[in-house]
Amino acid sequence: MSEPKVTVCCTVNGQKVEADVVPRMSLADMLREELHLTGTHLGCEHGVCGACTIIVNGAPVRSCLMFGIQAEGAEIRTVEGLADGDTLSPLQRAFWEKHGLQCGFCTPGFLMLATWMLEQPEPVTEERLRHVLSSNLCRCTGYTNIVRAVTAAAKEMGKWAESAAA
Amino acid sequence: MAGLPDEPMNWIGRNIPRLEDPALVRGEGRFVADIAVGSRAVVFVRSPVAAGVIRGIEKPDLPRGVLVITGGDVAALKPIVPRLGRFNYVAIEQPILPRDRVHYVGQPVVAVVAPTQREAEDIADAVFLDIEPEQAVVDLDSAAGPGAPVVHPMAPTNTIVEGRIRTPGLDAVLAESTIVEIDVRSRRQNASPMETRGGAASFDKASGRVSLHASVQMPHMLRTGIADCIGMPEADLRVVAPDVGGGFGQKMSLFPEYVLLVWLARKYRTEVAWIEDRRENLIASAHSRDQHHIVRGAFDGQGVMRGLDVEILANIGAFSCYPTTCGVEPLMALAEYAGPYKVAEYGTHARGITTNTAVMAPYRGVSRPVVSFALERLMEVAAKRLNIDPIEIRRRNLVTVFPHRTPTNMVLDEASYLETMEKAVEVADLPGFRARQQAAREQGRYLGIGFSVINERTGYGTPAFAARSMEITPGYERVEICMTPSGEVEARIGASPHGQGLRTTLAQIIAEEVGVDVQRIRIIHGDTDRTPYGWGTFASRSLVIAGGASKLAAGKLAQKLKRAAAVLLQGEESQVRLEAGMALIPGGASISLDTIARTVYHSAGPISEKIGYDLNEAATYDPEGTFSNACHVAVVEVDAETGNTRILRYIVVEDAGRLINPMIVDGQVQGGVAQGIGNALLEEIIYDADGNILTGSFADFIPPTMAEVPDIEVHHLATLTGATVLQAKGVGEGGSIAAPAAVINAICDALQPFGVQLFEMPATPQRVRAAIRAAQETSP
């Protein structure tokens, strides 16, 4: 039963890594099982819930829908890379302060998607925030405090703009 | 309504950021799939047919290290058989793996064990189940009707549980009143926690014990249930609920998969793990709320509801859930139908009907989202029929005098049913809304407002469960508290949180009593080796019951510390205050609690006569229960062309008594409302006539996203009653109980010009359009 493996070289959270994976292994499984980065969670494994969202080459990606071997040479960022040592990122801190999480299972996906959004040149309005983050599911919070947390982080980072409708 | 005088309010009532969160926002939580990495994988082959006879199971050639386990291999395992002592309950046996018949699509039939998930899935694909299909019964009304196929031979009418109640004066009231009858249908739900079910069982060769880490809400109960099925000493099993990614009731019950994991680990002296995928969760974990109610309200000319007569059918699925039994839905509806309303005369006939569908189990609110949907729709329809304003008809019927005894003998403690509604009317600016609604209608836009007034039975202990005649009566909670020699406080609790923030709120309660910072308090939960027997987390109970026990245990610890301080400071025990980690007496003398702790353990001599040799205390709390309450308001716009509903504003005015951490309370309410919005508009598990499930992915079963759920405003009233030691009431379920009625009342209000009345949820765009079409066809 030994399936042939392929060596994948990529950068994860700034570190060069290598993993020997079977070609059918998803990128999410590669991160979790081969690189022991279990902060990336699997909620549906069919690309709907967004819990496994990571940033690959500057774009948000559902890591359950990508193979590990497709990450050859890629720059990958996961939830484990958000904090700077003991210092949480402004977004992580906002999720904490605004009670933007309850069970915490969907949180890494929301954090990665929102981190990506906050790094884009366009300012964040409530409309854009809801439009982008509506691609992820949370079952605990009712989203209200996720919106408040991302809004607070955007304001702190100077990325917030009142929407035209407001 | 304010806090009690003379009581320092340092920790209670503060929005302390949760102690749980730093690890979770770093991705350093420890969920069961994280623990399972590297274990041998278990994959279940599940029945592809809803009813049938197993003729044979063909296995492929198995590589070394791969096991294929069938019902014949586990014939020695006892089935899961929850029991109920009355209500004509028929005990049905759920096999761990079936040997002769299958009863629903998704039932586990074969377990494959392989070194990796991939290999296990490959083998599972190659296992062939030779099952001769039989006629399945899926639909609730058909299953309850005459001539239906029989699911279990011991229940020839498919009725597994049946409750009746009828007050003596009901018939007279029905005869002399205006009868408003509605026919209410709730379609099947799936709680859909973001983390699916899963377990990792590992055998320890040195001790002969098995540890099961599992994503569950009731670890102690699970341990007893598994040990019973396997016939192993319970003491040789440790169950741990690590970080649990939501549960909402779905993770309360004992499932065959967990029994099998422990059996495998023990028999093969190994480590095995099963992590459910989303499809399995949608088709084969617990479902809920497939119910049909016929409700007859008897109103007098003033709109006072003098009687209520209800027929309840609940689809319980193929087996009865353990430990609550399948009575949980129909009997809760029977007991709690009157909600916050005065109902003098009451009758119910409630039946739980078995079908060839997935097993029903409690889901946040259990039957009450359906009950409040029915009652609040009834109020609207009655108001219209009797030409009374819908708010006014509620005013005339809400309970305002407390305590109030319901027709089913529950006692409603002091609450604010009327006050929350009046406040909600004010916050929503009802007159202003009516003006906007009129203006919008003139532009062909349909806005609507919907109200829903509910009460939520919370924090109930063993008396309430005993009243249902359950063989197993959950309810009490025990907290064992200890100050370590270094001065930290450890509290071991039987409750088992999974997102509710209990580590923070219980720490606040203990900090208040003992006078230490929350940062120095550790709440230890979810591990049967480290915590006292308890019932886990469900039924909006943990803050009230485990919190109450925490307060009592911490109070005892505080007393002990004061006694020790009095000895060491040579003062009066009654004059010692504990504050900010210090024990102080009038006149300025003080000693740190750390010093007291070190002295008690390490220099026991002088004070052991007064306080013994440790700083351990414990308390058990088993309350009668209390009722929190709320009024919800939804403002919607319905697109009459597409049937789509957009929620423009959502307001909750709730009363949970004393709030320990208001931010966490708001989060519970908001999360419940979002699930209620899903229930009202989107979520439905659909079977075809043969019992195949058509909604096996999140593309078909659709939980709401940030695009559907608006900002949820929460306002608080605080009725402090003596029903619980904390003066707190539970809030975990109220959001999901009230929201469906508020949303669907709003849709009906929006579609008033069409005369549309909806009695089925979810009110999907298809159903709304169908109702508009039907209304247009019948109107001249």
UniProtKB/TrEMBL annotation, chain A:
Report the residue ranges that make up the 2Fe-2S ferredoxin-type domain in this protein. 6-82
- Kindly list any coiled-coil regions of this protein: none
**Keywords assigned by UniProt, alphabetized:** 2Fe-2S, Iron, Iron-sulfur, Metal-binding, Oxidoreductase
GO MF entries: 2 iron, 2 sulfur cluster binding; metal ion binding; oxidoreductase activity
PROSITE patterns the UniProt entry points to: 2FE2S_FER_1 (PS00197), 2FE2S_FER_2 (PS51085)
Known PANTHER family for this protein?
OXIDOREDUCTASE WITH IRON-SULFUR SUBUNIT (PTHR44379)
The molecule here is called (2Fe-2S)-binding protein
Source organism: Rhodovarius crocodyli
UniProtKB/TrEMBL annotation, chain B:
In this chain the Aldehyde oxidase/xanthine dehydrogenase a/b hammerhead domain maps to 26-135
Q: Which Pfam families match?
A: Ald_Xan_dh_C (PF01315), MoCoBD_1 (PF02738), MoCoBD_2 (PF20256)
Query: Per its UniProt record, what Gene3D superfamilies does this chain match?
Result: Aldehyde oxidase/xanthine dehydrogenase, a/b hammerhead, Aldehyde oxidase/xanthine dehydrogenase, molybdopterin binding domain
Enumerate the GO terms in the molecular function aspect: iron ion binding; oxidoreductase activity
The alphabetical list of record keywords is: Molybdenum, Oxidoreductase
Q: What is this protein called?
A: Xanthine dehydrogenase family protein molybdopterin-binding subunit
